[in-house]
Specification:
- By secondary structure, the chain is mainly beta.
- It has one domain: Jelly Rolls (Sandwich).
- It has no helices and 9 strands.
- The strands form 2 sheets. It has a 6-stranded antiparallel sheet, with no helix packed on it. The protein has a 3-stranded antiparallel sheet with strand order 6-5-8, with no helix packed on it.
- β1 and β2 form a beta hairpin.
- The radius of gyration is 13 Å and the shape is globular.
- The two termini are about 25 Å apart.
């Protein structure tokens, strides 16, 4: 069993090409006993965005707060608090904040996606 607080977790700046004001906290993964999967919290601050990229694993996402856009394979979809999204493996995708408020979202990926 694992119980923790997001307030106590280290926030890491995403240093990938194309990332702007993007930060990550690893919430639960193999270290906490969830073998094979990782749940992360991403915060896109001040017009932030994730890199536009693709990879061979899917994303499962839940938007906690803020407003944004999800780009997947040439299509943009508006996101807001309570939105859910599934990004299939191999899809070109990017999350972008579209407001002054942070866009915070949960992202679950297979363990290989969090290396």
């Amino acid at each position: 069993m694992f119980v923790g607080s997001v307030k106590n977790l280290e926030e890491i700046k995403v240093n990938a090409p194309g990332a702007v004001n993007a930060f990550k906290k690893t919430l639960i993964g193999p270290q906490e006993g969830w073998e094979g999967w990782v749940m992360r919290l991403f915060s896109l601050k001040d017009g932030g965005k994730s890199p536009r990229h693709s990879h061979p694993w899917p994303h499962i996402n839940y938007i906690l707060r803020g407003q944004g856009v999800l780009f997947v394979d040439g299509k943009e979809t508006l996101l807001g608090e309570g939105s859910v999204a599934y990004v299939p493996a191999g899809s070109l995708h990017q999350f972008s904040s579209t407001s002054n408020e942070e866009l915070d979202f949960i992202c679950i990926v297979p363990e290989e996606g969090d290396k």
